[in-house]
Amino acid sequence: MDAGEFTRDEIEAGRRLFAADWQFVAAAGSDVSLPPMRGTEIAFAGRSNVGKSSLVNALTGRKALARTSRTPGRTQELIFFTGGSTLNVVDMPGYGYAAAAKSKVAAWTALIGAYLRGRANLARVYVLVDARHGLKPTDDPMFDELRQAAVSYQVILTKSDAIKASELAARIAEVETALAKRPGAFPGVLTTSSHEGTGMEDLRAAIARLLSERKRP
Asked: CA 137, CA 197: separation in Å to the nearest integer?
């Protein structure tokens, strides 16, 4: 998505949405421990160490709302946050961590599958992809799972500050070409840098637009 695509009203709506007092709600390690559905949910998925927790913190303006770690695979539960409004944010377990035990991977996979299929208020999953590396084969199972669960999803390129502008443009084009072959993917790729704070205004506006569209009859 190009900068400037969003209206001033959408940008302001996004700012207000994430200026709220965001708080931790629950951590669910199994489908039976999922909190009750309320309002609208969006979720962030991605490979281990792609920067999901850092993005949640940057998005909400809270430095330590979501726990970050240099250790891949640390997040093993679905972590729920709310801003006290109609929106709830979910930090999903990272996938693709080769050193994780098969039993643990199987548990994560089952949890994610149950969540995607059983959450009627889930509006969209944002799949985070490291801009330095692009799409990897380990992303395919997640895309397949989202397609099978009929959940809308969109890709966000993280750590966009770590590569040159020309490389980023090429990466966006590469990802968009790959996603064009997946009818379940929402068109357009968002780019962010949690470190620099770039792309947060557009991401907030995109989420505000999503909420607005869901309210329409």
From this structure: 28
* Residues in Cβ contact with 160 at an 8 Å cutoff, skipping those fewer than 6 apart: 131, 168, 191, 192, 193, 198, 199
Tell me the CB-side half-sphere exposure of residue 111, using CA atoms within 13 A: 24
Contact 44, 75 (CB under 8 A): no
| Cα-only R_g, the chain | 16
Check pLDDT > 50 for residue 59: yes
In 10 A of CB 215, how many CB atoms?
8
For residue 180, give both structure tokens: 């064009």
- Confidence class for position 72, pLDDT limits 50, 70, 90: very low
Mean pLDDT within 104-131: 90
List phi, psi (to 5°) of 66: -100, 135
Average pLDDT over residues 95-113: 76
Helix axes 102-118, 140-148, angle to 10 degrees: 30
Distance CA 145, CA 64 (A): 30
Length of the chain: 217
Place of tokens 């380990």: 138
Number of Cα atoms under 13 Å in the Cβ half of residue 70:
0
